[in-house]
Design brief:
Layout (H helix, E strand, L loop, with lengths): L21 H8 L1 H9 L3 H13 L4 H16 L1 H19 L10 H26 L9 H13 L2 H13 L7 E6 L5 E7 L6 H6 L13 H55 L8 E3 L6 E6 L2 H6 L7 E4 L5 E6 L5 H16 L8 E5 L4 E5 L11 H15 L5 E5 L7 H17 L3 E5 L3 H10 L4 E8 L5 E7 L8 H9 L27
Parallel strand pairs: 3-7, 6-10, 6-11, 8-9, 9-10
Antiparallel strand pairs: 1-2, 4-5, 4-7, 11-12
């Protein structure tokens, strides 16, 4: 039996090797916040969801297949969460089943396999019963195929027959087997038989006389019969152990795939409970990159705030470069993380935090975000930035996505701009998508002049009084990030030393919304 909930032609592999930069991407995009909400303390859910998010899919057909399954799960999240819990509890019970002192003895192996199979049979019955009420309401290929398996191959007559066979294998009437005498009077050709009825009538009618009883203290005779019993049960022990292993492999696989879907449903519920929009993105197969969004926001930020966050619209179809400039604390870095997270979720085949989203399936996602100064002073900040970029350059390929947040800001504007300009243009020339947040005007202005044909240029907005709207809209770079706004808010006066305004409330402007970011 195959699960195939998350892939059309194979099961989920949690042993897959994640990209070397996966940890960096997770840290820069704040994925741990999402994973905390998905897991709710369940490490199995966290591990499975992290693998799915960071491994990603590179085929649009596979993305759409998984999206359809996710849509079914979001229609009945409590059903899928219940199936997950049934399997987790059943596997834990089977793990604690009889092991005995002589674990390798056929008799002990048979008993343990029977107990495990009894537990698995009960789990399979619960899966069929719990999925039946919604089976006709769900439409994805993956869920329909799995639930059809429950309904047809695991129907009640079949499960009752399995249970009857397992009851026989507990040997309530003893073990009956046949054998032949081989060379040297050694038993051979052992064959297990169905025991005859053992009531008083059957015993009184037995005139064969081919029976005997062992004396209570005949230890040697008891050991000899035990060896014969083990020989008779050896083949049965192998078959039963293999059967119980096979069913548990299926249940563990189903558990892991349901763990992912359970985590997805939990994250979806947390966001929609706040009134945040979500959608299953439209996946486009196109020779040029597609990126269009309405109401796009950072889900990690939303989960950390009591109120809803500001979403942004984005029209960047066919653009290799997206450059974001504008007011400090205006939401530039937040939009960058929003784009990266949305693309990661799209390529995982999951829902996206936006009202609508259209995107193309790409390759790997790389991040180059600013870091704190090396506390051990082993190297300077610029050297550290260049070293991380060199690692990215060695690995990144055409079709991949690079997210750069204030790269090369550790040196002066002229040098930082020139370094960034050369690096970003080289990426663009190779067909690598680049999304950049920068306050380096020299860099932004030069790219605006030379890359308008393959770029989209956005600017964080501010009100005339300096308040941030956290809206990012199309706009050419400006030679200021409005740092004086922050100065006035913090010090209550302009940089020249004059009062910020005659209005006394000016010195107590509200702090920027946490969405502001860079």
């Amino acid at each position: 039996m195959n699960v195939h909930l998350l892939h059309p032609d194979r099961d989920l592999d949690l042993e897959v090797v994640l990209p070397q930069h996966a940890g960096t991407v997770s840290d820069d995009l704040g994925l741990e916040v999402l994973l905390d909400r998905m897991a709710e303390g369940d490490e199995r859910v966290r591990t499975a969801c992290r693998t799915v998010l960071l491994a990603g899919l590179e085929d649009a057909r596979a993305v759409r297949y998984r999206q359809a399954v996710v849509a079914d799960v979001l229609r009945a999240p409590e059903v899928f969460a219940g199936l997950y819990e049934v399997i987790v509890a059943g596997l834990e019970l089977a793990k604690r089943s009889y092991s005995g002192l002589f674990r390798d003895a056929p008799d002990a192996l048979v008993r343990r396999a029977v107990e495990r199979l009894q537990v698995s049979t009960d789990v399979l019955r619960r899966l069929r019963q719990d999925s039946a009420p919604v089976r006709s309401d769900l439409r994805s290929e993956g869920v329909t195929r799995l639930f059809e398996l429950f309904a047809t191959q695991l129907d009640e007559p079949y499960l009752r027959e399995v249970e009857a066979q397992l009851e026989e294998l507990t040997f309530p009437r003893g073990v009956l087997f046949a054998a032949r005498l081989g060379r040297g009077a050694v038993g051979t050709g052992f064959e297990l038989k169905r025991p005859r009825p053992q009531g008083w009538l059957s015993r009184s009618l037995d005139r064969s006389g081919a029976s005997f009883e062992l004396a209570d203290r005949d230890d040697e005779g008891i050991e000899s019969l035990g060896r014969l019993r083990d020989q008779a049960l050896a083949e049965v022990a192998v078959v039963l152990s293999q059967a119980s292993d096979d069913i548990e492999v299926f249940l563990r696989q189903l558990r892991d795939e349901l763990a992912v879907l359970t985590g997805v449903a939990r994250l979806h519920a947390a966001l929609t409970a706040k009134g945040e929009p979500t959608c299953l993105p439209e996946v486009v197969s196109a020779p040029t990159p597609k990126l269009t969004a309405r109401g796009l926001y950072d889900p990690a930020l939303s989960l950390q705030l009591a109120e809803q966050v500001v979403g942004n619209d984005l029209d960047a179809d066919d653009a290799l470069l997206v450059l974001i400039t504008g007011a400090n604390q205006g939401g530039k870095s937040t939009l960058l993380r929003s784009i990266g997270t949305a693309q990661l979720l799209l390529q995982a085949g999951l829902f996206v935090p936006a009202a609508t989203f259209v995107g193309s399936v790409g390759g790997q996602i790389y991040t180059h975000f600013g870091r704190e100064e090396d506390e051990q002073l082993r190297r300077g900040k610029l050297e550290e930035e260049l070293d991380r970029m060199r690692t990215i350059v060695d690995r990144i390929r055409p079709g991949d996505l690079l997210l750069a947040n204030e790269s090369f800001a550790a040196t002066n504007e002229r040098e930082g701009s020139e370094l960034a300009r050369q690096v970003f243009r080289a990426h663009l020339d190779l067909g690598i998508r680049v999304v950049v947040v920068t306050h380096l005007y020299d860099l932004a202005e030069s790219l605006y002049r030379t890359e308008s044909a393959r770029g989209v240029f956005l600017r964080a907005q501010r009100e005339e009084d300096g308040e941030r709207t956290f809206r990012i809209e199309p706009g050419a770079p400006l030679p200021t990030s409005y740092g004086q706004d922050l100065y006035r808010r913090i010090f209550g006066e302009s940089p020249s030393g004059t009062a910020a305004a005659e209005d006394p409330s000016q010195g107590a402007r509200r702090a920027p919304h946490p969405q502001g970011g860079a």
